[in-house]
Amino acid sequence: MKTRSPPSTSREGVEVDDFDPLEIDGRWQQMDVKSSGESNSRLSRRSALLLAAALAMVTASLFVGHGSLGSDVDDERVAPIRGTAYLSRDEFKDVRTARAGESVLLTGGLGFIGSHVADLLLHRGFEVTIMDDESNGHNHNEFCQEMVPNNITVVDDFPSFPNTGDDTTQFTHVVHLAAAISVAESMANPVKYENINYGGSEKVINWISEYNKHAGSAGATKVRKLVAASSAAIYGDQPKLLPLQESAPYGGISPYADTKYRMEGLMKSFVEGQNNDGVAEPVSAVALRFFNVFGPRQDPHNPYSGGSIRRRTANCCSFPPTYSHFATQTSGVISLFLEAALTGKDITILGDGAMTRDFVFVKVRQCPVHPACSASSLTIRKDVARAIVLALLQDVKGDASFDVYNVCTGKSITINTLAGQVKQSMDSNSKITHLDPREGDIRESSCNPKGASDGILFKSAVSQEVGLEKTAAWFREDQGRRSRT
Ligand SMILES: NC(=O)c1ccc[n+]([C@@H]2O[C@H](COP(=O)([O-])OP(=O)(O)OC[C@H]3O[C@@H](n4cnc5c(N)ncnc54)[C@H](O)[C@@H]3O)[C@@H](O)[C@H]2O)c1
Ligand SMILES: *[C@@H]1O[C@H](CO)[C@@H](O)[C@H](O)[C@H]1NC(C)=O
């Protein structure tokens, strides 16, 4: 069953630090937003301030559209969100702006990584349609997009084909990030991972294939590129092969790794099938094997239990105020440590802490419109989100291609080092303690970033230290926000 999410408040922010008057093209596009109630008036005051600041710097105008998305429960169409294509200095330089009609279907767009990808695409003027079942996402993305809850395992939930009904939404790109993400949970509940990570990916790929068949006859745009999230988990523990290159064999030791690797297989056969069949304008695909991604909005509480489902709150920029603790030492360890340091709890390391990981930063544009944020926090740093968008926008000529890239920094640190850094970044009195190691945890992990640097021109630009600083700042602000609401 599909229902619309409660209306969210939204508007766009202004990137004060990155605002480059010389590059402004004066084309502040209208964006689909919802407005409502109290928080809107607070945001309006904030936007008025930001607008004044922007106008003082350049004579560009800013439009905020209102209510163009209906809140009608019967309206089951998936509404795209339009971006603002505003240009900024330096950090966005390598990601081009949208060309006419470019429109992205983004699964998992409410999640930690997905929300940053949505922001980045919207900034570059892309139309974005989010598909997320809200099982783990919070919709604290900065545009606070309205979206329709959709489950990637149900094909009926997909946007209709361009020649059916009155839905005129067309797509040119697909980013597939929706997944169940806990290695440990996958051990306990492999069926869930089979259904969502493998079955869901199969649905996404089949949908693209069907969509493109219909698009041709309907005169609609075709999807030309699919980028999907794979994982370093597929390498497993292969100390002799460090630093890991894409050519390393499969060594996964969990259903999570298995389903991600088989998803890559689906992508590969999809691409090869099109080439063999001589499909015109075929879809190319890229699987990105993320190492340990960290940054703002990462939920310190991985979904171990499968118990309570977190819903986004009325204030879409904040976490729900309470949630319980689950320890993980892989993804999420930085957010877990930061939260412990912030709240004065013990920073608990599972094992001796000598294990190494490559931590790669997601992206930050800290809380641009929230009243709790100061103008000084408006800075942008990004890595993983940029890698995804670079892979997405890379042109392919001729036959379709399938590529796999690691997304990492190339520098690993120990968990002990990390714990010390976290403590320092929070100026915290937390004790660093050790518990038994978790079974199945890999000792050494390190990554060779050369493939992505050659293939999609992605080089990590945010050091782990700077990323940590940004993430710590976000956690402090988020804590402040939570205690006020
Ligand atoms: N965070 C990391 O360090 C890391 C490392 C390797 C790979 N990855 C991969 O990157 C992707 C994004 O991870 P993340 O860290 O942002 O996790 P996340 O849980 O924050 O995001 C995943 C999103 O997918 C949604 N989702 C889950 N099941 C769904 C379903 N059946 N239908 C629709 N939506 C569904 C969730 O609600 C959530 O918003 C995942 O595919 C994950 O496996 C992440
Ligand atoms: C989406 O479907 C999967 C299995 O197909 C299920 O496990 C999950 O709970 C569903 N999501 C929601 C929010 O109902």
TrEMBL record:
Keyword Transmembrane helix belongs to the record: yes
Keywords from the UniProt entry: Membrane, Transmembrane, Transmembrane helix
Gene3D superfamilies assigned to the protein according to its UniProt record, in alphabetical order: NAD(P)-binding Rossmann-like Domain (3.40.50.720)
Record's compositionally biased regions (Basic and acidic residues): 433-444
Source species taxonomy: Eukaryota, Sar, Stramenopiles, Ochrophyta, Bacillariophyta
Presence of keyword Lipid biosynthesis: no
SUPFAM superfamilies: NAD(P)-binding Rossmann-fold domains (SSF51735)
Protein name: NAD-dependent epimerase/dehydratase domain-containing protein
Start and end residues of each stretch annotated as Disordered: 429-450
Domain NAD-dependent epimerase/dehydratase: 104-301
Residue intervals passing through the bilayer: 48-69
PANTHER family noted in UniProt: BIFUNCTIONAL POLYMYXIN RESISTANCE PROTEIN ARNA, UDP-D-APIOSE_UDP-D-XYLOSE SYNTHASE 2
